[in-house]
Amino acid sequence: MVGLFKGGMRLNLKREVDESYDIVFGEKMFEEIAQYLAKTRLADKYAIITDSNVRKLHAGKLENTLKTFGLDSCIFSFEAGEQSKTMDTCMDLMGEMHKLKYGRDSAILALGGGVVGDIAGFMAAIFNRGIPYVQIPTTVLAQADSSVGGKTGIDTPYGKNLIGAFQQPTRVFIDVATLATLHGNEYRNGLAETIKHGVIRDANFFEYLETNLDEILKRENKQSLVIARTNCTIKGNVVEIDPHEKGLRRVLNYGHTVGHAIEKLADFKLPHGHCVSIGMMVAGRISVNQGFMEMQYLLRQEDLLRRVGLPVTIPANISNGEIIEVTSRDKKAKNGMARYCLPEKIGKMCEFGGEYVTHVPNQDVARALNESR
Ligand SMILES: NC(=O)c1ccc[n+]([C@@H]2O[C@H](COP(=O)([O-])OP(=O)(O)OC[C@H]3O[C@@H](n4cnc5c(N)ncnc54)[C@H](O)[C@@H]3O)[C@@H](O)[C@H]2O)c1
Ligand SMILES: [Zn+2]
Questions:
Q1: How does strand 72-78 pair with strand 45-51?
Q2: Mutate which of 139, 178, 197 to test ligand 1's pocket (most atoms within 8 Å of Cβ)?
Q3: Could you give the CA distance from residue 224 to residue 33 in angstroms, rounded to a whole number?
C-alpha cells in the first residue's frame, strides 16, 4: 500500500524472496529436462545458450529432445573459451534473442561449462530485467562449483568477474554422461576443486577420492555421480550457511590466494585447476610450518593431487617476490600481509576467532613458497 506523509509519499516495497532451487543428478537427462519444462511451463520459448564446442557435441540433441515435447527453442552460441566471457558476447547473444522475438515469456537454458554458466546466468539477470534460467553444467568444474551459489558475471579489461549479479537458477540438472566428451586435461583440472572440497569439509569424501581414483579417472558414471552429489552438498551447505560471503564461505577460497596470484602472473595461460592445486600446497605448507596441521595431512593432499596429474610446485618462471607482491596488493590484505585459509587437517579448516582466514606474515609465506619448488 502507498503510504502518505507530509510533503511526500512512500512506496512500500519490502522484498521477501525464496530463491531455493533443486539440483538433480543423473545420466542422459535431456528427456527429463524436457519433461520438467513441459510440466512446469517455465516459459513459452527457450534460448539454449552454449559455446562452439558444446554446440557441436550436445546442444543439437537437447534442441531435438525439446522439440519432441512440443517446446519452442533455439540455440545461441559463442566461441568457446574464457576470452569470450565479456559484455560484448552477452550483447551479441541478447541482440540475437531480441531479433527472434524472445521476451519476458522466455527462459534460458545454460548448457556448457563455467563460462557458459556465468554468461547465461548474467544474461538471465538482465535480459528484459530478468528471466528464469536452468543450468545444465557439462564440465567437472561447473558441476562441482559454478552451478551452486548463483554467482554470475563476466570479465572486464580491469579484472575477472568484476561485473555480475547473484542470480539463482530455477533448477540445475547435473548430467554426468555429458562428461564423456570432455578433454582429458579439462577433466583432471576440474578435479582440483573437488579435492579442495574434501580438504575443507569432508574427510570421508577425501578418502573416497583416494580409494576410487582409478574408476574416477575412467569417468565411470557411478563415481561421477557420487562426486557431483558430494561436491554440490559441500558447496551448497557452505553457501546456505553464508550466502553472501561474510564468514564460512571464505573456506571455498582455500588455495586461491596464491592460486589467483599465479594465474595472474602467468597471464591466465595456466588452467585454474593447476593454480588452485599449487595454491593448496602452499597454504597447506604454511599451516604445517605454523604448527596448525600435521605433516601427514599435507602429504596425503600432495599425493592425491599428483595422482590426478595436477602440479604441486610453483612454475620456475614465477618468483616468490612476484607472488608476495600480487597477494599483498589484494584489497583484503592488512599491513601488506595477505589473507589465507589454512587447513587444520583433511576435512577441517582452521578457525581464527570465528573467522576462517588469517593474515600471514610475508616471511612465512616466502618460506612456504621456497619449500614448494
Ligand atoms: N559462478 C561461479 O560460482 C564460478 C565458480 C567457479 C568458476 N567459475 C567460472 O567458470 C569458468 C571456468 O569453467 P570451466 O572450467 O567449465 O571452463 P569452460 O566453460 O571454458 O569449459 C572448458 C572447455 O571445455 C569445453 N566443454 C565444456 N563441456 C564440454 C563437454 N561436455 N565435452 C567437451 N567439451 C566441453 C568448453 O567448450 C571449453 O573449451 C571461469 O570463467 C570461472 O570464472 C564460476
Ligand atoms: Zn576456483
A1: parallel
A2: 139
A3: 19
Instruction: Tell me, yes or no, if the pTM score tops 0.85.
Output: yes
CA distance 306 to 287: 20
- Catalytic annotation present for 272: yes
Query: CB of 165 closer than 6 A to ligand 1?
Result: no
Q: What are phi and psi of 159, to 5 degrees?
A: 155, 160
Per-residue pLDDT of the chain (373 residues; tens, 9 = 90+): 667 777 888 899 998 889 999 999 999 999 999 999 999 999 999 999 999 999 999 999 999 999 999 999 999 999 999 999 999 999 999 999 999 999 999 999 999 999 999 999 999 999 999 999 999 999 999 999 888 989 999 999 988 899 999 999 999 999 999 999 999 999 999 999 999 999 999 999 999 999 999 999 999 999 999 999 999 999 999 999 987 778 899 999 999 999 999 999 999 899 999 999 999 999 999 999 999 999 999 999 999 999 999 999 999 999 999 999 999 987 788 888 999 999 999 999 999 998 999 999 999 999 999 999 9
Q: Do the beta carbons of residue 128 and residue 104 sit within 8 Å? A: yes
Question: 209 near 267, Cβ under 8 Å?
Answer: no
Catalytic residue check, 55: no
3-state secondary structure of 107: strand
Q: Kindly report the CA angle at 331 between 192 and 282, in degrees rounded to 5?
A: 35
Exposed/middle/buried for residue 116 (C-beta within 10 Å: 0-12, 13-18, 19+): buried
> Which cell goes with 336?
601488506
CA 142, distance to chain mean position in Å, is 6
DSSP string, 221-233: HHHHHHHHHHHHH
Phi, psi for residue 111 in degrees, rounded to 5: -110, 105
151 a catalytic residue: yes
